[in-house]
Amino acid sequence: MKKYLILCTLAMLFVLFGCEEEHAFRLHTAPEYYQGRATLPSGQQIEMTESDRTNVLDACYPEDALSRIPDGERHLIGTVTLTQPLITTSSTDVFPTATFFEVDNQAYVQCQAKTITYMKQIDTLPNSLIAYRDHAVPSSATSKLRNAQPHERIHFTEEMTKPVGNEPYPKRSGLDQTLVHVTMPFNGSFEFTFESPETYETVTLPINEASRQPFLSLALGTEVSQDTKQYGLHLSSDQTLYGDVLRPKDARFDRMLGARQASTLPTTLIPNERYPLFSFSFIRDGKPHKQVVSITYREETLLRGDRLKTKMRQQFAHRRHVVTHDLALLGTESKDASFLHHANAEAVQFVFQAIDRSKAVATAGTPAPTPYLTVFEGICAQTFDVSYSGDDVFLTNTLTGSHFKLLRADAERWHDLFNKQQG
Q1: Banded model confidence at residue 400, pLDDT cuts 50, 70, 90
Q2: Which H/E stretch holds residue 246?
Q3: Most CB atoms closer than 10 Å: which of 88, 134, 166, 338?
Q4: What is the C-alpha separation between 19 and 117, in angstroms, rounded?
Q5: What does the pLDDT look like over 2-20, one tens digit per residue?
């Protein structure tokens, strides 16, 4: 029964993540081609073993996703990010980012890929994270706001005098009466609205691995350089430096007139409610301006069921890559390794079509000058041994030993594409 369930799960993974099983194709989930790293709440990073990478992929399989976030205090254990160094570029999707946490000693995972977010209850944590359960950090399900104390305001203005960026350093100044602190909820985002009679603009701060901290301190600040004067929201997770800045598109000013905190501040940020924090006035292009800055906490929208599966197919089913290589892959190579040859988009399309049209045969040829081919689709991969017999091209499944022969026209184009590459 267990073997049957595993086979069924793999078949469903093939459908959901863009893996197909037809003719020569025996694409399979490929944790060996991923690298994984967990970031703990302390900032410490640990490498994930291949078995742990398999656990992450299994944990983020999108069946049985929850419809709502579990009640109770969440204890954040760590966030795992997987990359595919063989094919990853700055524009390549990385899947999944998996945040593991517990509520009342029950393990959960939140999986994210761009705009897709879903949450699951799981039986156990990846082995590499189990040792860090006792170091889990409580993470609030809600966001609370606190006004700054006088000594914190003084500290903020001192921090804003410290240099940030590149020389010549801009001169920074903080408007301490605008300083507040918010607790960071587990997920979602903060929206900061800059509003005036003429303009309305929202700047979003997503809550993710990079930004998720117990607290966030924020206040209005200015930066003056040789070229421009700009205002913005200066942020800090530990009340130091305030080097992170959120700005509207046009944050220019000629002279800052002053700022005033809202007469009433909330203690809890109710999701989707907008709360004014402060207003400020300035001169720009000889005219006075006034803006009100508000904060809104947006809860994460969790996907599940058919909607989740549709989104997953749309995002991953057509992500394909083809590599020919002189040496067998270990899975840890950089995409820039000298023995790897990456196919362009036209060649990728041809290779998938040629493999799909290939016919099963009993024998293969002699090894080609570049004897290996690996194809990637979604989170799946498959490697073939490449061999020639005259003009014929054979592909042998490295796992099963099954041989497949390309059609004559496909073999001719193969030689045109890859013999030139090898030359």
Answers
A1: very high
A2: strand 244-246
A3: 88
A4: 21
A5: 333 343 444 445 555 555 4
Cβ distance 252 to 229 under 8 Å?
A: yes
- pLDDT attached to residue 6: 41
Write a three-state SS string for 386-423.
EEEECCEEEEEECCCCCEEECCHHHHHHHHHHHHHHHC
Q: 345 CB contacts (<8 Å, ≥6 apart)?
A: none
Angle formed at CA 25 by CA 20 and CA 28, multiple of 5 degrees: 60
| Residues β-bridged to residue 38 | 46, 80
Predicted confidence (pLDDT) per residue in 271-302, tens digit: 999 999 999 999 999 999 999 999 999 998 89
148 DSSP assignment: P
216 near 234, Cβ under 8 Å? no
Classify residue 69 by its DSSP letter. P
Q: Give the separation between CA 281 and CA 299, rounded to whole angstroms.
A: 31
Identify whether the C-beta of residue 286 lies closer than 8 Å to the C-beta of residue 255: no
Banded pLDDT at 27 (limits 50, 70, 90): confident
Cβ–Cβ under 8 Å, residues 178 and 233: no
| Token pair recorded at residue 216 | 């966030």
Element (H or E) spanning 269, and its range?
strand 268-269
Q: What is the pTM of this model?
A: 0.77
Residues above pLDDT 70, as percent of the chain:
91
